[in-house]
Specification:
Two copies of one chain form a homodimer. With 415 residues, chain A is of the alpha/beta class. Helices cover 42% and strands 26% of the residues of chain A. Chain A has three domains: 2-172, Molybdenum Cofactor Biosythetic Enzyme, Chain A; 177-252, Alpha-Beta Plaits (2-Layer Sandwich), CATH 3.30.70; 259-411, CinA-like (Maf protein). A six-stranded mixed β-sheet of chain A has the order 2-1-3-8-7-6, sandwiched between helices. In chain A, a hairpin with a 2-residue loop joins strand 7 and strand 8. The model of chain A has no long low-confidence stretch (mean pLDDT 93).
Chain lengths: 415, 415
């Protein structure tokens, strides 16, 4: 099941915008057994697009095309398809009605250009766009099945999920069902995971893939079989075997991010969190509050970048910092304990470290990080060394490690 | 000067990784007059790469190829080139010496696979890799000039800057010099900027481009002329005219980010900053501390997400919050003033707002944000309404507006 993805638009070929649709579409179709062999990105225009369509059709059976369906003069995808096939544009009644409804809702006059968005090449099948004005369409050309979608990532993705994935699966007509399972992990390297899991016997039809999404590793199980029930059973079996080996580092199986998992765990238990951050400078607080509704759980953060702030905001004794240094286990513990005393939050986490590039010493090289946790049951601390990492990496790894420590503490895993 | 960019690698076609090199390379070559008409991404393998090379050479004069130069078995770019041209691999003495030096430095044994990295196709010109083990090379094929570079973005970019841009400019042999100026702006939309600047007469050979890099707009002046001095003079003249029209929203002309500009302005004046963030949840502190050396300037931050935290950490009276609400000008002012009193920092900024999606009211819809500034000279506040924006946008726009207010306050611009 060979596929190609074409992206169209001057903003992509000139490099003003990075094309993220092609990778997303390919990754999505991998889950139904699609093998993408070619991405093509071409400038706006009829000739470049027809050229790309011919190249793709000569090499693959299915082609997804994104971009060029908007209302402006440089949106020429419809015209290119008409010219390639020698057909005209026809108004699609469903698309027209939807367009009228949208313009009525937003109270704007519809221009002739807008009206063009309800027209698709004769013989094409409409692909509904549930959130935008530009519908997509599917049509056969030069021996390949083409699916045309808007370039707006949110629309493209939704229409893939809602329509195109199913259309391709049906058209591929392979006597097979597909399934995929995603495990998000943190705490083991890709090679360490591979070493653990290479010994795991996977059921027939299941294969395992890795993807480094710094600072995480995502594991994916791809299942393929005669029917849905067989694939489900095989994936369940494989998932159980993976969990048995590396379950502790798997923090989500449903796509949730680590901050979402932490917030959900806390919310379910009525736990309020407070943070004291030094080297991460607010990054952990930022990540938690990226999530809507985090105010249920997240009470406050103290970004104590200077030593004086550690003393004034958290009550860390100045003499403790003088004796042990601001980057030390005693300082981290005093930060977490002081924050708990002052905030009354159930679970307080503190971070102090050397993010670099400057500030490292032989004893405490760049990448040295101390994290402490305080709750009603006690006070814990851990030292990390994120060696040979750039500043941004040290900070990202530290924030991830901090969130994972909260998760592990709440679940009663080793910290 | 038509160009194509080829990216090679299974991790790209399967969508495991998004190709960022092609957009970067295209954008970089635009500055020397290069017009990229095609991006091609192909899977690992000799045949796919030769296919892509033929497609690119038939359509363009210059082709940049990234990826497939590493030491492993699926790094087949060298072999594809040899097969396409019917030549063999030869060891390059400079590349071999460099490889030996690297392996000596890191104290590892060199394997046969590593040794292959010092070999390039016969007749090719070496392109030095100053930071990695895989050198690149340039060679003519099928009427086009090809430049092969590693897929590692940092290596690819450095080798473009250090070698390939100059090689292409020389090979293009157009009797022209090129130059580019970048203005980073915040505070006007792309269409507002366009309206102001479309009336500006630009000197001959200079054109103006826009690029939205949310939440900023980048302006670029592209200059082209008979020689370097002419281009410089024309760009200087154009830059002066742009500054005269929209100087207030230009925050950097040297590529520095807004946080770097703010830190540099403060450092030069010995100003210490403290932050009190509610709806941004630490995002502004995170951005400032992304920059190495920010501890000179940034003293502390209070992420006061709950109302109690605003009272306990900043001394905002509970009755003030009850009367005006936590999202209000009085609350923002009390946060900034309270932080200044407690921290002693020279300049204190506070943020309180409704990031959404929940929490909006008819009076204070989602996107309502109050920012206040306190320094020795007084206390200011501003209200923003980032309407119809998603949570992440509200937060990003707010953080940007906050940093820009600090910049404007320090420079004595209207706030």
């Amino acid at each position: 099941m060979r596929l190609a993805v074409i992206a169209s638009g001057d903003e992509l070929t000139t490099g003003a915008v990075t094309d993220e649709n092609s990778a997303w579409v390919s990754d999505r179709l991998l889950a139904i057994g699609g093998e993408t062999v070619l991405h093509l990105t071409v400038a706006d225009g009829i000739d470049p697009l027809i050229d790309a369509m011919n190249l793709a059709a000569a090499r693959t059976r299915f082609v997804i095309v994104t971009g060029g369906l908007g209302p402006t003069a440089d949106d020429l995808t419809r015209d290119a398809v008409c010219q390639a096939l020698g057909v005209g544009l026809v108004e699609n009644p469903a698309a027209r009605d939807r367009l009228h409804a949208i313009f009525k809702m937003i109270g704007r006059e519809m221009t002739g250009n807008n009206r063009r968005q309800a027209m698709i090449p004769a013989g094409a099948t409409l692909i509904r766009n549930p959130i935008g004005t530009a519908p997509g369409f599917a049509i056969e050309y030069a021996g390949a099945a083409f699916y045309f979608l808007p370039g707006v990532p949110r629309e493209c993705r939704l229409m893939m999920e809602e329509s195109v994935v199913g259309m391709i699966a049906a058209a591929a007509a392979e006597p097979a069902a597909f399934g995929v399972r995603l495990f998000r992990t943190f705490g083991m390297t890709e090679s360490a995971l591979d070493q653990e899991l290479s010994a795991v016997a996977l059921p027939p039809g299941v294969r395992l893939g890795y993807r480094a999404v710094v600072p995480e590793i995502h594991l994916k199980l791809y299942g393929r079989g005669a029917d849905g029930a067989t694939v489900e059973a095989a994936l369940n079996e494989a998932a159980a075997r993976v969990r048995a080996k590396v379950g502790g580092v798997i923090y989500s199986e449903d796509g949730r991010s680590l901050e979402e998992v932490v917030l959900d765990l806390c919310r379910a238990r009525g736990i309020k969190i407070a943070l004291a951050e030094s080297c991460t400078g607010g990054l952990v607080a930022k990540r938690l509050t990226d999530v809507a509704g985090s105010s249920d759980v997240f009470d406050r953060g103290a970004v104590t970048y200077s030593n004086r702030a550690k003393t004034e905001m958290l009550g860390v004794p100045a003499e403790l910092i003088r004796e042990h240094g601001a980057v030390s286990a005693p300082a981290a513990r005093a930060m977490a304990a002081g924050l708990r005393e002052r905030s009354g939050a159930d679970l307080c986490l503190s971070i102090t470290g050397v993010a670099g590039p400057a500030g490292g010493t032989p004893d405490k090289p760049v990448g040295t990080v101390h994290i402490a946790l305080a709750d009603a049951a006690g006070l814990w601390d851990r030292r990390f060394l994120f060696a040979r990492a750039e500043r941004a990496w040290v900070r990202d790894l530290t924030a991830q490690a901090a969130l994972d420590l909260i998760r592990r503490r709440i679940l009663g895993l080793e910290i």
